[in-house]
Amino acid sequence: MATAPSRAEIIIGALPFIRDFSGKTVVVKYGGNAMVDRELTTAVIQDLILMRLVGMQPVVVHGGGPQIDQAMKTSGMQPRFAQGLRITDADTMRIVERVLVGEINQEIVAWIQRLGGAAIGLSGKDGGLIQARKAAPVKAPDGQLVDLGLVGDVARVDPRPIRTLQEAGYIPVVAPTAGDETGATYNINADLVAGEVAAALVAEKLVLLTDTDGILDRQGRLLSTLTRQDVERLMADGTINRGMLPKVQACLTALKAGVRKTHIINGTRQHALIEELLTPEGVGTEIVA
Amino acid sequence: MATAPSRAEIIIGALPFIRDFSGKTVVVKYGGNAMVDRELTTAVIQDLILMRLVGMQPVVVHGGGPQIDQAMKTSGMQPRFAQGLRITDADTMRIVERVLVGEINQEIVAWIQRLGGAAIGLSGKDGGLIQARKAAPVKAPDGQLVDLGLVGDVARVDPRPIRTLQEAGYIPVVAPTAGDETGATYNINADLVAGEVAAALVAEKLVLLTDTDGILDRQGRLLSTLTRQDVERLMADGTINRGMLPKVQACLTALKAGVRKTHIINGTRQHALIEELLTPEGVGTEIVA
Amino acid sequence: MATAPSRAEIIIGALPFIRDFSGKTVVVKYGGNAMVDRELTTAVIQDLILMRLVGMQPVVVHGGGPQIDQAMKTSGMQPRFAQGLRITDADTMRIVERVLVGEINQEIVAWIQRLGGAAIGLSGKDGGLIQARKAAPVKAPDGQLVDLGLVGDVARVDPRPIRTLQEAGYIPVVAPTAGDETGATYNINADLVAGEVAAALVAEKLVLLTDTDGILDRQGRLLSTLTRQDVERLMADGTINRGMLPKVQACLTALKAGVRKTHIINGTRQHALIEELLTPEGVGTEIVA
Amino acid sequence: MATAPSRAEIIIGALPFIRDFSGKTVVVKYGGNAMVDRELTTAVIQDLILMRLVGMQPVVVHGGGPQIDQAMKTSGMQPRFAQGLRITDADTMRIVERVLVGEINQEIVAWIQRLGGAAIGLSGKDGGLIQARKAAPVKAPDGQLVDLGLVGDVARVDPRPIRTLQEAGYIPVVAPTAGDETGATYNINADLVAGEVAAALVAEKLVLLTDTDGILDRQGRLLSTLTRQDVERLMADGTINRGMLPKVQACLTALKAGVRKTHIINGTRQHALIEELLTPEGVGTEIVA
Amino acid sequence: MATAPSRAEIIIGALPFIRDFSGKTVVVKYGGNAMVDRELTTAVIQDLILMRLVGMQPVVVHGGGPQIDQAMKTSGMQPRFAQGLRITDADTMRIVERVLVGEINQEIVAWIQRLGGAAIGLSGKDGGLIQARKAAPVKAPDGQLVDLGLVGDVARVDPRPIRTLQEAGYIPVVAPTAGDETGATYNINADLVAGEVAAALVAEKLVLLTDTDGILDRQGRLLSTLTRQDVERLMADGTINRGMLPKVQACLTALKAGVRKTHIINGTRQHALIEELLTPEGVGTEIVA
Amino acid sequence: MATAPSRAEIIIGALPFIRDFSGKTVVVKYGGNAMVDRELTTAVIQDLILMRLVGMQPVVVHGGGPQIDQAMKTSGMQPRFAQGLRITDADTMRIVERVLVGEINQEIVAWIQRLGGAAIGLSGKDGGLIQARKAAPVKAPDGQLVDLGLVGDVARVDPRPIRTLQEAGYIPVVAPTAGDETGATYNINADLVAGEVAAALVAEKLVLLTDTDGILDRQGRLLSTLTRQDVERLMADGTINRGMLPKVQACLTALKAGVRKTHIINGTRQHALIEELLTPEGVGTEIVA
Question: What is the pLDDT of residues E86-108, one digit of tens each?
């Protein structure tokens, strides 16, 4: 049992970490599955507020897969995927934007406000934060190219809307939708958005909260630290695959732009963010330059 | 035909108005019906960008009735109204928030960006802009009180999120949804939100864009200038009624807080905003203290 | 006849120009002949005030030939010219400085103030704005060199006095007189001063208001756009000559320093400045890099 | 003979005065007669520059009677006076403005610049510094009221143009001409302008440089310190009269507005300003509240 | 044993306290006896650095009784006391100032710097922080008044030196010596200095670190919360006495000036400061308004 | 005898010097022997306050040899020297730090405050101003290397603590003690500290106040201006030796870093600082690049 004196000792143990991160931007990808559990979400929100209070500059990027599926089902629509990516026609895109920007983003913002923080939501459209472009078609198992419709890539990030909110004391909460110059709206993978935003802000850290413990080797053992070379090898030999691919891609994008460290950690573990950032126990997988 | 010299003369004619409004905040309610016509919307967006460029500080508040009805229909839901107010259960509220915040707000923001302006969307939840409270039940024609569900009133406005965006050069675009301290989300009449926001900012002007020419007398003639006393008399005798009621209420709220002038004008007329603000021709109905 | 809606449309037509010039410095040479007509002067002053209100930074440089001639006549002195340049002895210089700084400059300043703007007059001596040096003698038709006396060139411009006034919200109004390090005072051609001031401020535009429509070809047709090469050719072949020479020289000086565009337009046309700056109709001759 | 050590001691003796005046505004009236002697003027200019360097904020107001008389004579005009005040018709006013603003003001400005200071000239018209109104007629010895024409009083002072120049590091040099709302230009007594400017700036001191030693009693002895009551008594009994009247009036105006001390000192004595401000030897007459 | 997850939970438990103290000044009296143990001092220094990092503004006031006694002994001098207060002649005062300012203050400053913080030492003389006055004589047990010599009270605190250091990011470390206007130097009780400094800064908290657990009742039980009334009663009945008197006096001074809470806690307990400030476990005695 | 007019003339004679030094940092080494005479010290303090008032930024570095000797004697310790440098064991160092930081520094600070200036004392430990390292052993006449103990050199200067105080209007007063990364405290020659501080601040001037007239040639005549080459030659041939060596070394260090001029002057001459800085009479020896 943690007695009172050891409480203070544990808090004082956070001192070197708080010092190192003071004033630094940390981009946190906080995803769809991790948001389902109410208690866990409360813990993540508390972590974000504490990060801000001890001098860090957290930026949240969120996804929303399960909620989009649910909304489509309610509207009688059938989600379709190609290589794990959502095929997004205009009707689907309308649902995606409504759910991401008009529901999940608002929920996170309101939660932060309710627990005593201050947050403002942004989509890629707000202030021209993200300029999108249509993603390339993907190759189906049968070798055919599948057009994903309104699935986009990040063409350009304008960091000013986020800087404006940070300087005014708000935690920016970013939904992964954006427009292009023709006025079309795109759905972009939230991991990739987090990587590009971290890159544009030259953040200190990118932390991707997932529902697994990190990157595992073929024997299922956690790999705690990987270099970019390691990652490229593991992608080539298929150890890293499927849903882990955009996460790893986000980390590489961020590292190339000068972000110091990137992490893939288990967001279903209570206060995993604080554990990673403010305690000597590293958790999950760290990918470094 | 307007020849070149008279162009310059007309522009120079805007000089006294530009001078008077320099640095002043003008809250513009821009509504659901007015947004249906693409050309008209383009004209309104241009007006907002010009307002900003000549030194005014426009703040947009938008509604979205028709689009909400359409979205509910698509989801197989049946809109219900009591005394012209939408009865809003939890499922309806989810649709309302998704459409207002995740669709209409984003559309206005993206349009402003595309025409060369800079805008960021806010709901009442963002940065704690609006604190809502449940609205009182309304009396049905049969005398019974009808609970409107998640229809809210404005309990409090925190002007800081809007000020932050204004100072950074963004036009704030506000969706009329907000939370209360229990975490519930409310739909608030956009006219009322515009009035309360204008009051909290002590705006120079509140301009409500509608689809009629202004307040008409019983003979259908436009009333161009009304005092608060006039308005109260016209409400009492039923000349002002139905959908015009929240508009007039918004004007009175704003005037009480020190807003100088309020206007109800026909937003279906091209560049009616510029006409009202920068030309000697007043349009619509002006309600003054 | 311009009906109300088209007023708004014409104003909105100024949008792209206002956007492009926002925050930019525009140096306007406003001359002696153009100042004789009271109505015209009122129009020019309104143009300057509007420019400031819509976000431009106008700087006025003025001449005063006719008024100087008049003042000399009153004092019983005889103006003398060589190659169109005023031969300026000490007595003449005293009259020149009194009229330019103590009469014309004050008249423009007072006019701007009276129409609701804010202006402060400067000579080249104020705050060391302009350091002069004696101009070289000119060659008379008989081949003899004529010493022009106290006619000067611009040796150096210190932009700080103008920046100080601009930042405090005043329109700077510059009289073309300046001293050298010996304490002598010089009369400098106002067109040249305008060109040098535009160059030192790296202005966006230099606009010279004259009493002709611009540069004409040998057939008397207006040349609307010229490059520096065109201009040098036209000077060489004598198409550009006499009073147009210092104007063209001013444009070249400004262009060399990085000023984007220079214009020679007819200031006797009402609101020609606004026409040039804020309407699609270009007027006069534009000389570009 | 002042040996080297005593030099340092004398300089250190200025310490308490420099400390007391640090950051304080001192308005100096520097007049027409005092400007005739070149060596004396150099000394006054040095004094002003030193005042600025040791942290004071000098503001110069100048007159120009002798130079105006001279200019009128050159133009074949005959100065006319009533009760010592110049009767100013439109032609005279034109000469007055030209000479004050276009000659004397420029001369002082250029002199300060040449000796290493920084100065910008202002008239009452510049930036709306002084709003004038027509002065009341004066009673001639024969009891008739004489209309002085364009002789004005100070209706209002806007201190912002002076503050702008002070903050940017320039010594403001003020010519005593100003306009009214009709566009008329007035000649105002420079002593009165100095008093009103000192009042509007709530200066620390007003120092009027004259060509006498100060206020003398009927036996011709210098009165070194007077209160407002003393002054009113001496005006009533005629001891203070003629040209000393506007000086004393200026002092009273300044004192009423909160200026701490006012001085009438002999500007024909070398470095009298420094002697008064930075040495223990007071000179001339001091009028205090 | 505290496992990894509970570390994060304990850190997150500090969230509400960090939020409440963000930007607030906390004055910490850190005394002579508490400084003897090296490990304890390290812990206190870490606490101060963490306080600063999480957004608080700590100000340290230190004493130095044991070190002064030691230094006097080394110099062959005999400490003398009256009513627990050091009788301070000129020779003693020289030792006191040397040890407090030239040894203990420097030691604390260097320690903070070495552990990664930033600190600058101040005495009451630096920047005129504290103006002292001679303390009144004390009554000896035999009823005679004993002059304490150079023992002083705080006459006035100028908070600017502390504010200057705080704004530049330094932790101010204050030694309790000060001068009066005659140039005499006084030794002031460090508890009293802490109370006066907290009062002048209108600090959020005053925390006095002692070597006992707080204020005990007559049965030796800790009194955890006392009001000013309680304290006055306990002083009157002698429960609070001797060395606890100046501590309690310091708390009352601070509370009267608007300091929110004051604490007397046991500085010999590791990280007692963090325990008091950032954990739910209050320690020691809290005296509130 | 200096009559009143010549007082003003002498003050005005300081004008060019005040102008040249405005805003510039001047480091003044003010030493132990020079501090013994009360009247002299008052004069030096006045000089420093005047320097600040006329716009210079003085920084004081002080020594304290005689006072340290006296304190050691009082404590029954015997000063030991090797090659003129104090052999400093731990007990000696404790005395040195107490006397320099806790007595002399405080005395200078209090004196400046009492005469109306504002000063804050710093040691090399405060804010990490100076990082020390152990000095190399010196060679005794018998050829043996003598370890000087806790005598240090300047390893690094962090100018921020001084800049912080200067910007807030305080004169920084620096004691020549500093720590290294192990926590050891060192005594550093004050001349060397002055040179290094002047170098780190890229001061305009370094002025070393000594008790001789400057550097003398072998015939005992004052050398008024020396270049670095001259100095190196005079060091090589032994003309410059003993206590003058660290002074000359300090000048060379400062000059190498870009300090414009360095001076060794006689601080026992009243107001020698003002004489050097603000009068045409140079005093002492000037060493220039």
Answer: 899 999 999 999 999 999 999 99
Q: How far is B73 from chain C (nearest CA, A)?
A: 37
Kindly state whether residue C7 falls inside one of the protein's structural domains.
Answer: no
Domain-located, residue E6? no
Which of B123, B129, B130 would best serve as a mutation to test chain A binding (most A beta carbons within 10 A)? B123
Q: Are D273 and D13 in contact (CB under 8 A)?
A: no
Position E38 confidence tier, pLDDT thresholds 50, 70, 90: confident
Residue among A125, A110, A248 at smallest CA distance from A187 = A125
Report strand pairing: B261-266 vs B285-288: antiparallel
Give the ranges where chain C is alpha helix by DSSP (H).
4-13, 15-21, 38-53, 65-74, 90-99, 105-114, 160-167, 190-200, 228-236, 244-256, 272-278
State which residues form the domain around B284: 18-288
Percent pLDDT > 70 in chain E is 97
Q: Which of C74, C123, C126 to substitute to test the interface with D, most D CBs within 10 Å? A: C126
Which DSSP state fits E136?
P
What 8-state DSSP symbol labels residue D102? I
Measured distance CA(E122)–CA(F145) in Å, rounded:
39
Q: Is residue D166 part of a domain?
A: yes
Q: DSSP state, A35?
A: G
Are residues E272 and E266 in contact, defined by beta-carbon separation less than 8 angstroms? Answer: yes
Contacts of B46 (CB under 8 A, 6+ apart): B115, B271, C12, C15
Give the model's pLDDT for residue B60. Answer: 98
F240 — pLDDT class (breaks 50, 70, 90): very high
Confidence class of residue A2 from pLDDT cuts 50, 70 and 90? very low
Does F200 contact E at CB distance below 8 Å? no
CA A56 – CA C102 distance, rounded (Å):
60
**Judging by beta carbons within 10 Å of its beta carbon (0-12, 13-18, 19+), is residue C262 exposed, middle or buried?**
buried
pLDDT higher than 80, residue A4 = no
Which ipTM score applies to this complex? 0.94
Cα F230 to Cα A185: distance, rounded to the nearest angstrom: 76
Residue C76: inside a domain: yes
CATH number, domain at A182? 3.40.1160.10
- Name which of C7, C54, C278 is nearest B279 (Cβ-Cβ): C7
Q: Quick count: other Cβ atoms within 10 Å of Cβ A190?
A: 26
Q: Give the list of residues 6+ apart from residue E13 with CB closer than 8 angstroms, or none.
A: A7, E279, E280
Closest listed residue to residue F156, CA positions, set F121, F190, F180: F180
Encode pLDDT of A126-144 as tens digits. 999 999 999 999 888 888 9
**B114-140 mean pLDDT:** 96
DSSP lists the bridge partners of residue B146 as B138
Placement of tokens 């989810």 in the chain: B94
Q: What is the C-alpha to C-alpha distance for residues E75 and E68, in angstroms, rounded to an integer?
A: 11
Token code pair at residue F164? 């912080």
A28 near E63, Cβ under 8 Å? Answer: no
Q: Contacts of residue A127 in chain B, CB cutoff 8 Å?
A: 113, 118-120, 170
Residue A141 burial (C-beta neighbours within 10 Å; 0-12, 13-18, 19+): exposed
Rounded CA separation B189/B192 (Å): 5
Residues of chain D with pLDDT below 50 are 1-5
Instruction: Write out the two tokens for E285.
Output: 């005695």
Please state the pTM of the whole predicted model.
0.89
Q: Hey, what are B137's tokens?
A: 């039940």
If one counts the domains in chain E, the total is 1
The owner of tokens 């005129």 is E128
> CA-based diameter of chain A, in Å?
64
Closest-CA residue to A85 (of A148, A132, A134): A148
Q: How confident is the model at residue C7 (pLDDT cuts 50, 70, 90)?
A: confident
Average per-residue pLDDT in chain C?
92
Q: Check residue E88 and report its DSSP letter.
A: B
